[in-house]
Write a structure and sequence with these properties.
The complex is a heterodimer of chains A (about 250) and B (about 280).
Chain A: H1 2-18, H2 20-45, H3 53-83, H4 88-93, H5 98-126, H6 135-158, H7 162-179, H8 191-197, H9 201-214, H10 220-242
Helix pairs in contact in A: 1-5, 2-3, 2-5, 3-5, 3-6, 3-7, 3-9, 5-6, 5-10, 6-9, 6-10, 9-10
Chain B: E1 2-11, E2 14-24, E3 29-33, H1 40-47, E4 55-60, E5 63-64, H2 69-75, E6 76-79, H3 91-101, H4 106-119, H5 135-147, E7 153-157, H6 165-180, E8 184-189, H7 192-198, E9 201-206, E10 209-214, H8 216-223, E11 226-231, E12 237-242, H9 245-253, E13 259-263, H10 266-275
Parallel strand pairs in B: 3-8, 3-9, 6-7, 7-8
Antiparallel strand pairs in B: 1-2, 1-4, 4-5, 9-10, 11-12, 11-13
Helix pairs in contact in B: 3-4, 3-5, 4-5
Classes of the chains: A mainly alpha (about 250), B alpha/beta (about 280).
The structure holds adenosine-5'-triphosphate and magnesium ion.
Chain lengths: ~250, ~280
């Protein structure tokens, strides 16, 4: 089992290692743009008023960035390999358990999500953000990556065209990136929408990261919600792999 | 080795395999022939456990398909119809991935990979990306991959489609060699001479139904030994079958047009059995 998880991860690691430099470079672009546009840009416009806005959005950007990277690093290649290259069959033919496949893929997504988070934190520090990165901070990023890597497995195996896969990004990830307490607190939203937003995992990731980065406070409630999402997403991913047999 | 009983596979609105029963013996090379959409790939996918049958029973090596999934997976090798190599990896890495997935222990893996690559004549390209390979090279690599974990049964779904005659012949030799070493081979093909050349027995499928299954010689014998072939005035090629050469010769001289007398081959049987059904005259 452990061996099979390593095998799945080994394949993704081989490919990642070869593209490491390009991977890191490309992962820096989006967060830098976010920081420049929303942090620096807004910070200057409202100079004096909301001086800590940079500190406010950096945890949010780390949250949305780790979500996007872990989702797309797992989802798109898996979707293409299933629909276009048909390499996914090679895993279904092998005597490995669906659990091992899911965990291996999630692990690969986690590593990519973490790598890009490190890049992101580095960039934030260059922008002189005041954030505390401790054990809990890293743990929350890890949980966030696991959730979205597992959801990516589900999406990649359910979506029957690459366009549908892109639509997941446009209709689900992108709105979440902006609304889930990343650039502004969810409290500022209308009540109904707020209730909905507060059910989503990314909201809790942003909340946790922000409170840990500024005061060190860890909300057990939010951590429990993320844990529930992890369990749910992993179970759903395993079920999706099992259902892949027509 | 493989026992298929009353197998059926229905997709939403149509039947891909209909009440098929078949017994494939250990160590034999078995050919599956049939027009496009006959259900050959579907059958192979069921036998490789990629698709679940709607009904029926399949036993491989005495194990029930649904009950002993992992055990069966370790004794089958599959070369699918489409090239499904991992284009991000090199030839070596593709095979190594397969070895890891099939739990080939590390100490024998390196040796096996080297052995398999030279078996299919790709040792010099081991560290090249698969994306740069030609169709024949990819197909050979897929065979090497499928054999790495030393399966007892090999499924080849149209292994020689799109290959040039030299490469095709090389692949035939390869398949014959593996079969001689005791491997049970099940192959689907549209090239009838391929099945005639390689297989001890062939099955004809059409629209999911098994219409004939026997050795190529026995199948040919059902038609008669000789065939007279001529082009009629309306440009339609016609055949007439005879069991004796004399009868065939007599018949051909009675024809107004030029005619050819030759031995019946498997293609005649195939056309006779499948062609008539799709509404040909
Ligand atoms: N996933 C699927 N969903 C719906 N129908 C399918 C599916 N796979 C195959 N079929 C149908 O099953 C029938 C048999 O297809 P199959 O691929 O087994 O044919 P084949 O004999 O391999 O043909 P070819 O020689 O073209 O490869 C076809 O009518 C096909 O449309
Ligand atoms: Mg086919």
């Amino acid at each position: 089992m452990i061996y099979d998880i390593c095998t799945i991860f080994w394949r993704d690691w081989l490919v990642l290692r070869r593209r490491m430099f390009r991977f890191i470079l490309s992962r820096m672009i989006t967060p830098i743009l976010y920081l420049v546009a929303f942090g620096w840009g807004r910070g200057r416009m409202f100079a004096g008023g909301d001086g800590n806005y940079l500190d406010f959005i950096v945890p949010g950007i780390i949250a949305l960035n780790s979500m996007n990277i872990s989702f797309n690093a797992v989802g798109s290649p898996l979707n293409i390999s299933r629909l276009f290259y048909k390499t996914f069959d090679e895993y279904l033919i092998a005597p490995i358990s669906p659990v091992a496949f899911v965990l291996g893929k999630v692990l690969a997504g986690l590593v990519k999500g973490l790598l890009s988070s490190i890049v992101m934190i580095g960039v934030a520090l260059i922008f002189k953000a005041n954030i505390v990165v401790n054990f809990w901070f890293v743990l929350v990023i890890i949980m966030n990556c696991i959730i979205f890597a597992a959801i990516a497995v589900v999406a990649a195996l359910k979506m029957n065209s690459h366009e549908d896969m892109n639509n997941c990004n446009t209709y689900i990830l992108l709105p979440m990136s902006f609304l889930c307490g990343t650039f502004f607190a969810a409290e500022e939203l209308p009540t109904a929408l707020r209730w909905f937003i507060e059910l989503l995992p990314l909201t809790h990731t942003s909340l946790l990261l922000r409170s840990i980065a500024s005061t060190g406070y860890v909300s057990i409630y939010s951590v429990s919600i993320l844990l529930l999402y992890i369990i749910g997403a992993l179970l759903l991913a395993v079920k999706t792999v099992i259902d892949c047999k027509e | 080795m493989i026992q298929i009983e009353n197998l059926a596979k229905k997709f939403d609105n149509h039947t891909a395999i209909d009440d098929l029963s078949l017994h494939i013996r250990r160590g034999e090379a078995f050919g599956l022939l049939g027009p496009n959409g006959a259900g050959k790939t579907t059958l192979i996918r069921i036998l490789s456990m990629l698709t679940k049958p709607t009904s029926g029973n399949v036993m491989i090596n005495g194990w029930n398909l649904s009950a002993a999934e992992e055990k069966i997976k370790s004794i089958i090798g599959v070369v699918p119809q489409s090239y499904n190599l991992d284009v991000d990896l090199t030839a070596w890495e593709n095979i190594e991935l397969h070895g890891r997935l099939h739990h080939v222990p590390q100490n024998v893996r390196r040796k096996k990979i080297r052995e398999m690559l030279s078996f299919v004549d790709l040792q010099e390209r081991a560290s090249d990306k698969v994306a740069s390979f030609s169709g024949g090279m990819k197909r050979r690599l897929m065979i090497a991959r499928a054999l790495l974990h030393e399966p007892e049964i090999l499924y080849l779904d149209e292994p020689t489609v799109g290959l040039d005659p030299q490469v095709r012949r090389k692949l035939w030799d390869l398949i014959r060699l593996m079969n001689n070493n005791g491997l049970t081979v099940i192959l689907t093909t549209h090239y009838i001479e391929e099945a005639e050349n390689l297989c001890q027995r062939v099955a004809f499928m059409d629209k999911g139904i098994l219409i004939a299954c026997d050795s190529p010689n026995a199948l040919c014998a059902t038609m008669g030994k000789f065939v007279v072939e001529w082009t009629a005035d309306d440009f339609v090629t016609k055949q007439q079958y005879f069991s004796e050469r004399v009868q065939a010769a007599n018949f051909s001289t009675s024809l107004p047009n030029a005619a050819v007398i030759r031995r019946v081959n498997l293609e005649d049987v195939f056309v006779e059995l499948t062609g008539r059904k799709v509404g040909m005259p």
